[in-house]
Amino acid sequence: MAEQQLELEQQFEKLHQLIGQKQHKQVLKVTDAILKFSPGDIEALQCKAVAYLELGEYEEATKVLSYKQLQGQMQFERAYCCYRLGKFSEARHSRKCKMILLCSAGSVSSSCDKSCA
Predict the structure, then answer these.
(1) Is the C or the N end of the chain the one with fewer CB within 10 Å?
(2) CB distance 66 to 72 below 8 Å
(3) What is the per-residue DSSP string for 36-101?
(4) CA 74 → CA 33, 68, 70, distances in Å?
(5) Which residue has the higher pLDDT, 6 or 88?
(6) b/e map of 38-62 (b: 16 or more CB within 10 Å)?
(7) Is 74 left (phi over 0), alpha (psi -120 to 50) or beta?
(8) Which are the contacts of 116, defined by CB distance < 8 A and separation ≥ 6?
(9) Mean per-residue pLDDT, 11-21
């Protein structure tokens, strides 16, 4: 058990390094490894969703965002996926949709994140 905990901690350290380096494809691999040790880990699921967003893989991001562990969280990201996929009626139902429609269509920007927080 202690060995698994150590492995999990090492995977999270690696995950945070990869995020800092913007190695999004590698982030996906590490989050999968973490989720094998700790199924449903919220931080790993959040990182996985954001990695898919950064890679422009909105369908995959939507799948991760639909996990029950993330319900009620990451509303901006969920609405942004709908917007980018052309699902405007779904995006409009999000509490954060007005900010998405005002934010740049090219990428998730930090100014949008701050105004949607």
Answers:
(1) N
(2) no
(3) HHSTT-HHHHHHHHHHHHHTT-HHHHHHHHTSGGGTTS-HHHHHHHHHHTT-HHHHHTSTTHHHHH
(4) 22, 12, 7
(5) 6
(6) beebeebbbbbbbbbbbeebbebbb
(7) left
(8) 76, 96, 99, 100
(9) 96
